[in-house]
Amino acid sequence: MGAGKVSVDERYVLALGCRVSVEPGVGSTRVTWSMQGIGGEDRKRPPQGDRVVSFTCGRCRRNFCATVESRSKTRSKRLVYQVVGWLLLLSLLATVPVVVHLGGQTVDENDSGATDQLGIFLLMAAVGFIAGLTFVRLGRAHEGVRKFRLVRPDGRTTVWVRGHRLF
To answer: Which residues cross the membrane (predicted)?
Structure first.
């Protein structure tokens, strides 16, 4: 893997979770999933564009579909997410020293402009840190599978898929 390259496998595997139980507790809820991997030789990414794939849950026998992106589109999205994330994290090299500098200054009691600047730079540093880590993580986790839908008996798809999720 060279510089600027993000590896994406030609084949993909869908990790489908079917909810088995939900146990409410004090302050938390425990959800138990039955996991199954849906893959094989026929699960290749489309050469270009997106493709809708159909599959069945092995536990409850419901039919689902998902949209699989091409290898180049998945690679591009991964790269964009990671570049944006790292740029946001690199912006901390500028915002954190400014926050330290502004925070160490003494200001007059009636000067609200100085505290406004400190608040803005502090907010920029916090947003840069949180959003940067989020984008880097999204870039590493993006598999190119989206639009997970339940297929009704009449053939229409629903947006709300109850008791199932892709991992």
So the answer is: 79-100, 120-139
Rounded distance, CA 42 to CA 87, Å?
A: 38
> The whole model's pTM is what?
0.74
State pLDDT tens for residues 83-100.
999 999 999 999 999 999
Tally of domains within the chain: 1
Measured CA to CA, the distance from residue 13 to residue 115 in angstroms comes to: 52
Residue ranges in the chain assigned as alpha helix (H): 71-90, 92-103, 112-141
Those residues with Cβ within 8 angstroms of residue 100's Cβ, 6 or more apart along the chain or in another chain: none
Those residues with Cβ within 8 angstroms of residue 70's Cβ, 6 or more apart along the chain or in another chain: 45, 46, 47, 48, 49, 50, 144
Nearest of 36, 57, 55, 53 to residue 44 by alpha carbon:
53
Spatial separation of the C-alpha atoms in residues 117 and 99, rounded to whole Å:
9
98 located within any domain: yes
**Quick one: tokens of 42?**
């026929």
Q: State the Rg of the chain over Cα.
A: 23
Q: What is the pLDDT of residues 68-81, one digit of tens each?
A: 999 999 999 999 99
pLDDT (0 to 100) of residue 69: 92
Q: Name the β-bridge partners of 53.
A: 66
Rounded distance, CA 25 to CA 32, Å? 13
